[in-house]
Design goal:
By secondary structure, the chain is α+β, with helices and mostly antiparallel strands. The chain contains five helices and five strands, in the order H-H-H-H-E-E-E-E-E-H. It has a five-stranded antiparallel sheet. Helix 3 packs antiparallel against helix 4 (78-90). Mean pLDDT is 84; it is low at 1-15.
Length: 165
């Protein structure tokens, strides 16, 4: 599958954009959300994201107190977990799931890894900032993007470049 095909396929599963304020609009949004939830449970589209979500929840318990690393690591706040779950749920269906980790500053990290020279790390802060760093061959890319419920295109493009290489 090419990057363009993967993007096209995943964008068709994101759900409707609606500005409706009627019972019918609410019904459609609810039914689409139920359909997306079913797709996320499938092996083809969502098994990896579901596993990453479970890994995140385990990590939240394990790292919930100060010093969870045996030193002075900050506890992971509930808001950080909430933002990280929103990030995982915003990933397109069928995309390779990231590995999940915790940082000593209390942020959650998602990592896509292919080789030592093909890697992307995205850290989620409790404020909803996404700090990312990627290595693609000899090219480096890094920065910070705000998270408003959708994966910023710069980060999503880096995910596709890492997993397709």
């Amino acid at each position: 599958m090419t990057i363009a095909t993967a993007r096209q396929a995943s964008s068709s599963f994101r759900g409707p954009q609606t500005f409706g304020y009627s019972a019918d609009a609410d019904y459609v949004v609810k039914r689409v959300a139920q359909g997306l939830a079913q797709l996320r449970k499938s092996n083809s589209f969502g098994a990896g994201i579901e596993a990453a979500t479970q890994e995140l929840r385990s990590l939240a318990v394990e790292c919930s107190s100060i010093g969870w690393d045996g030193y002075v690591a900050a506890a992971i706040e509930q808001e950080t977990i909430r933002q990280a779950e929103r990030f995982l749920n915003a990933l397109p269906l069928g995309i390779a799931a990231p590995s999940v980790g915790a940082e000593p500053d209390g942020q959650i990290t998602f990592e896509w890894y292919q080789t030592p020279r093909r890697i992307l790390s995205v850290s989620v802060s409790p404020e909803g900032d996404l700090h990312y760093a990627a290595l693609l061959g000899y090219r480096k890319s890094y920065g910070t993007e705000p998270f408003f419920g959708e994966i910023p295109s710069d980060i999503l493009n880096l995910v596709y470049r890492v997993i397709s290489g």
